[in-house]
Amino acid sequence: MKNSAKRIADLVSPRQQRNWDWRAATNFIAGGAGGGLLLWTSIAVSEPDATRTAILLALVLIASGLTCVWFEIGRPWRALNVYRHFATSWMTREAVVALLLFAAGGLAVLTVRPLFVIPAGILGLAFLYSQARILAANKGIPAWRHPRSVALMIATGLAEGGGFLACVLAVSSAVFSNWILAGLVVLIVIRAFVWRMYLGGLVADGAPDGALRVLNGIAPRFLVFGHVLPALAIAAVLAGIPGRAGLLFAAGIMVAASGWFLKFTLVRRAAFSQGLALLRLPVRGRGAAGPAAKPGWKGMPG
Amino acid sequence: MKRYVMTIDLRRCVGCQTCTAACKGANATPPGVQWRRVLDIETGEFPDVRRTFLPVACMHCANPPCEEVCPTRATTKRADGLVAIDYDLCIGCANCVMACPYDARSIVHEAHYAYGDQPLSSEAVRFDPARIGVSMKCTFCVDRIDQAAVTGRTPGVHPEVTPACVNSCISGAMEFGDINDPESTVSRLLGETQHYRMHEELGTEPGVYYIWDQS
Fold it and tell me: Which domains does chain A have, with CATH numbers?
């Protein structure tokens, strides 16, 4: 087949999306972790310096993600138009939540009062939820639009936030309860469960072969480095093994980094488009109609 | 109320790409961007192999996912069923590109020309800077459709108010018109044939019908 003809044929099958690059991925990577960190800080930390440090870190993460997106959009000087469609657009809602979040978060950093810390935490969760819904609203990308992707994005954002909180607590002199460590283990277990559910749902409901190949390819590494090893490190901390701060920091980093790895994979590498399909091949001449064709999807001809 | 749709008879399409060229000429899309494409699909295994030509573009959905996700209201659905983009509002976030299951949208971030860095004189005349950095797609030749209200002509009947691809089709595979008008060509064809719309399971209610056999 000639190259030009092959290029046309390739347009039929699902293709990896190329419009959202690492800058868009960074918004989901850093913003989700920041939202999760805000929530956990508002729930689990009472020591002022650690609270201030954690909230500041969360705001920096969210701001860096949004800044990356600003550098990606085609018309950055019109960015304020993003506020025009609150009725249905989750991107608009994310932008509105971000405004409120920075106001509450800024006041929380300055005052460290529950009056501002708790709303900042709630807004962190709202930001995380908005980001999950942005992905899920994209019907053109089967790996994103699957209903379980929302739970996956929220679960990993909360786990990453817990991981960053563990890092903050490890490097600060703040006293913290073992309940925080137990909570982090619960988050790790929940994320592993939601990840399996998501992957199983994607296989059962159908997705482009390329997306399944990429996601199945990262599954063992994600499970070991994002769940098994951090859980063991936290268990060691709880068991009183020396090197508490180092183990906790390592566990936090592994939980956060594995979540970032997952989100980068989901947004960039596993983001295969729907592709095109024919429900029936047309009648030609005196021949009969042919069966359906859906190239690039397992079990379908083409 | 009018609802403009397109019918494409897959039995008739010969993959000549005349509609692709007509669209390019009518809309001056930049190199690498084709609002109208005709895809060549080979299926089956030797000796039972089939070749099908599939013209695709924006489906002008009744429930357009691109409109739902657009944060700026640049993408809107018109009362006559056409999905339009306001280039002056679009921020080029590409959310609509991700939302479209038909690969119908594209964004060009820099001006490109057919030959080198400088435009040909024909390209320079028709270059539209408003289209750089924003989302774009097939409009069903909306400027022609809008002329129908002024001239009293009927889209799908009179060529001057009918999309360029439909006018150019050498085999009569493409038709255009108001599906709510029982006398229109598209209504008649849909009544006489077996047809489907692509990815209907996603709830988009596309406005392009693919005909594959007689009733």
Answer: 17-269 (1.20.1630.10)
- For residue B95, which of A93, A189, A191 has the smallest C-alpha distance? A93
Q: Left, alpha or beta for B33 (phi > 0: left; psi -120 to 50: alpha)?
A: beta
Average pLDDT estimate for B25-38: 94
Integer Cα distance of A155 and A151 in angstroms: 6
Q: Which of A24, A78, A90 sits opposite B91 (nearest CB)?
A: A78
Locate the domains of chain B by residue range: 4-209
Q: pLDDT tens across B99-140, in order?
A: 999 999 999 999 989 898 899 998 999 999 999 999 999 999
Structure tokens at B212: 């594959």
Q: Which residues pair with B48 in a beta bridge?
A: B45
Quote the ipTM score: 0.93
- Selected for mutation to probe chain B from A66, A71, A278, A284 (highest B CB count within 10 Å) is A278
At a CB cut-off of 8 Å and minimum separation 6, what does A129 contact? A150, A154
Contact A282 B44 (CB under 8 A): no
pLDDT in tens, A194-209: 999 999 999 999 999 9
Strand partners for B40 = B53
Tell which CATH architecture fits domain B4-209: 2-Layer Sandwich (3.30)
Among B38, B94, B133, beta carbon nearest to A20: B94
SS3 assignment, position B77: strand
pTM above the 0.80 mark? yes
Q: Do A276 and B103 touch (CB under 8 A)?
A: yes
List of chain B residues whose C-beta atoms are within 8 Å of the C-beta of residue A74: 90-94, 107, 109, 132-134
Report how far residue A44's alpha carbon sits from residue B30's, in angstroms, rounded to the nearest whole number: 55
Residue with tokens 């509450």: A104
The set of residues, in sequence order, having a beta carbon less than 8 Å from that of B97 and lying 6+ positions away, is A17, A19, A140, B105, B106, B107, B135
